[in-house]
Amino acid sequence: TSIITVKNLTKRYNKKEVLCISELNALHGRILGLIGPSGAGKSTLLRILNMLEEPTTGEVSYLQQPAPVSQTGKLQLRRKMTMVFQKAALLDTSVYNNVAFGLQARKVPKQEIRERVLAMLDDIGMLALSQQRAKTLSGGEAQRIAFARALVLQPEILFLDEPTANLDPPNVELLEGMIARLNQDHGTTILFVTHNLFQARRLCHDTAFFYQGKLIETRETEQLFTSS
Ligand code: ADP
Ligand code: ADP
Fold it and tell me: Which Pfam families match (predicted)?
């Protein structure tokens, strides 16, 4: 089933069309790669799907329902989705508090927050740094915390905007492992912007190609590499 359905969507900035999609489906429990050169509209699409921006025309439905219009409806839906960006924007507080923040906002009981945060930090090899200020982390460590903060919420939908673009190979491998495990263990539907085809092949079940704002085609990733 389709978790996110996009139909006849366009986005214009100052009359310039930067996105035009007749149809796109993100299927339940699958990782969908969004691939294409810089400026193709991939980030704009993710911001629209994450409800950070409105499309100019067209619609997006979530879990087969039209996008909610009420503030409560939007808030409920937002809580099922999280996003990780290319560059981690961490709060100027401890590593622990950065990971705990979203759970606190959701009023999860303190003891459960503590267990989930510490388990997550252990998972990514950063338990010993839990009291360190996030500001003092290296780029790779900061990005691991950005992932931890998103994944600890166990979202139904995860948006990734080139989250490993600036990282060294060991960190790329670690984060790719986390993405694959989240998808396998929790069935999280993931939309993954990358311009690395090899990364798409490693992780994405399906791949959608964008060029100059247009969705060119969507295919099962493996087909891309086996057919002409
Ligand atoms: P990609 O993520 O594929 O690199 P983007 O979605 O960032 O592409 O950008 C698509 C196009 O939209 C680009 O031409 C970019 O300059 C333009 N664009 C993106 N955001 C804005 C904005 N806020 N105002 C005006 N133009 C924008
Ligand atoms: P508050 O200070 O908001 O009343 P608590 O102190 O009861 O909340 O719990 C949240 C705090 O728990 C965080 O600020 C965090 O520093 C701390 N914390 C608890 N256990 C650990 C731990 N094992 N490692 C790191 N921080 C922890």
Answer: ABC_tran
Distance from the alpha carbon of residue 104 to the mean position of ligand 2, in angstroms = 11
Pocket of ligand 1 (CB under 6 A): 13, 18, 36, 38-44
DSSP-derived 3-state class of residue 72: helix
**In angstroms, rounded to a whole number, what is the distance separating the alpha carbons of residues 155 and 148?**
12
ipTM summary value: 0.66
Residue 161 CA to ligand 1 center (angstroms) comes to 13
Q: How far is the CA of 97 from the centre of ligand 2 (A)?
A: 8
Q: Which of 54, 58, 136 is nearest to 95 (CA)?
A: 136
Quote the pTM value. Answer: 0.89
Confidence grade of residue 225 (pLDDT, cut at 50, 70, 90): confident
Per-residue exposure over 27-66, b if at least 16 CB sit within 10 Å of its own CB, e if not: eeebbbbbbbeeebbbbbbbbbbbeeeebbebebebeeee
Residue 220's H or E segment, with its range, is strand 214-220
CA–CA separation, 132 and 174 (whole Å): 21
- Which of 146, 160, 147 shows the shortest CA–CA distance to 49? 160
Shortest-distance Cα residue to atom 20 of ligand 1: 44
Determine the residue of 93, 114, 116 to mutate for testing ligand 2's pocket, defined as the one with the most ligand atoms within 8 A of the Cβ atom. Answer: 114
- Give 171 Cα–ligand 2 centroid separation in angstroms: 27
Confidence of residue 60 (pLDDT cuts 50, 70, 90): very high
